[in-house]
């Protein structure tokens, strides 16, 4: 390796080939040789490349850290409101679980991005409208529209968070894809935080039990209630101030999971045929089928968000294309099952909501697939796929408004 490096000091391409063949050996040998090569410009470049100091975890100002701590405490207090105010947990949590976390994260990005007063008023007005509406909903035991409103209110609050992250309603593709990437990174870092916290909690409860003190109930009802909402808040702070923490992990996860999900879907569809189960006459199966569809869509969106920011190989793009095509097939089966059930048993709030959501997803999938085909045929680059997703996100926001606020009125709060 030593002789090869010395003989190719004026050949950048050959040095790059040597480096990619065996990076660790190349670095070790080059560092040993470098004191003799200080007058060589290319050698100086390689020295900077190989020995550039890696970024450490940073604290982006004490004010921001204090703000994050206050947000975590506030989220914990909101989570404990049923205990403080003696409110029924069955009433409070289904309606208000989204308000524990989303408003504080939205406020964080609104503050971080220095949004104008008008934009803050829009965020506050939308959030307050959702809060008042969902808590004014008739307290009935069986209500499909209540469940639909609660679920879609979470998506509405997520959309408001996206607005605070992006900072405007214009078609800003880069920032919208950045928001999707933030969600993927947040899932990764929050999972790690929760795993670490769970280990610490188990050790704490176990150590106290050894000295005869049972703190399990107190620990869960107080510490855990504050720690759970604090985890994504801390995760958000870390992803924004230290993107290098998960910046290299998320693309690897996307690269690994995309082909695995594709294989799983293909096997699942074949197994479904042989099992005799289908979503046409089994309501629970249809629910699981749609949940599967949404999960696969999320993986496609996350993978495309990563792809749009990095150079994607043709093989990886083909995997995304095949995954999109199979997901379109899954969507088509789910859509036909919903239409069949509506024709057989009539229109209900659930069927109407699922039908509308599936149609929106199908259109989005078709747009993404068209762009992926253009990419693999070299007629466009991968950024076009990102645009097909980013410009469509506000349409989901509009749909969440319709289901959250209009469906209960349309179906008489049934």
Automatic annotation (TrEMBL):
> Keywords, A to Z?
Membrane, Transmembrane, Transmembrane helix
Asked whether the UniProt record includes Iron among its keywords, one would answer no
Residue stretches spanning the membrane? 65-85, 92-111, 117-134, 146-166, 186-211, 223-240, 252-273, 285-305, 317-340, 352-373, 393-413
Say yes or no: keyword Membrane present: yes
Protein name as it appears in the record: DUF4153 domain-containing protein
């Amino acid at each position: 390796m030593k002789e090869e490096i010395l003989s190719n000091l004026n050949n950048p391409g050959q040095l790059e080939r040597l480096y990619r063949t065996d990076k660790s050996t190349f670095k070790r040998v080059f560092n040993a040789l470098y004191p003799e090569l200080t007058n060589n410009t290319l050698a100086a470049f390689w020295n900077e490349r190989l020995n550039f100091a890696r970024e450490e975890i940073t604290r982006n100002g004490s004010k921001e850290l204090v703000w994050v701590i206050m947000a975590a405490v506030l989220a914990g207090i909101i989570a404990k409101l049923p205990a403080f105010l003696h409110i029924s947990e069955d009433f409070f949590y289904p309606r208000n679980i989204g308000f524990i976390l989303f408003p504080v994260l939205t406020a964080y990005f609104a503050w971080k991005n220095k949004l104008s007063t008008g934009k803050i008023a829009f965020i506050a007005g939308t959030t307050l409208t959702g809060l008042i509406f969902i808590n004014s909903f008739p307290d009935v035991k069986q209500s499909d529209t209540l469940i639909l409103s609660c679920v879609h209110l979470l998506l509405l609050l997520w959309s408001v968070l996206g607005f605070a992250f992006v900072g405007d309603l214009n078609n800003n593709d880069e920032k919208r894809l950045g928001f999707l990437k933030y969600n993927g990174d947040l899932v990764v870092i929050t999972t790690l935080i929760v795993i670490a916290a769970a280990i610490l909690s188990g050790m704490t409860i176990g150590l106290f039990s050894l000295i005869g003190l049972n703190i399990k109930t107190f620990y869960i009802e107080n510490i855990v209630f504050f720690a759970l909402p604090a985890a994504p808040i801390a995760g958000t702070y870390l992803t924004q101030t230290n993107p290098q923490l998960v910046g290299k992990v998320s693309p690897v996860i996307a690269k690994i999971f995309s082909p695995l999900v594709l294989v799983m879907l293909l096997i699942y569809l074949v197994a479904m045929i042989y099992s005799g189960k289908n979503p046409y006459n089994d309501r629970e199966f249809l629910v699981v089928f749609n949940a599967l569809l949404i999960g696969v869509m999320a993986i496609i969106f996350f993978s495309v968000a990563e792809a749009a920011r990095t150079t994607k190989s043709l093989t990886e793009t083909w995997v995304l294309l095949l995954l999109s095509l199979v997901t379109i097939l899954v969507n088509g089966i789910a859509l036909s099952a919903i239409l069949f059930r509506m024709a057989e048993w009539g229109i209900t709030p659930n069927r109407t909501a699922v039908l509308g959501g599936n149609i929106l997803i199908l259109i989005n999938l078709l747009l993404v697939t068209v762009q992926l085909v253009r990419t693999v045929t070299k007629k466009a680059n991968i950024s076009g796929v990102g645009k097909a997703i980013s410009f469509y996100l506000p349409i989901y926001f509009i749909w969440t408004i319709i289901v959250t606020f209009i469906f209960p009125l349309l179906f008489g709060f049934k």
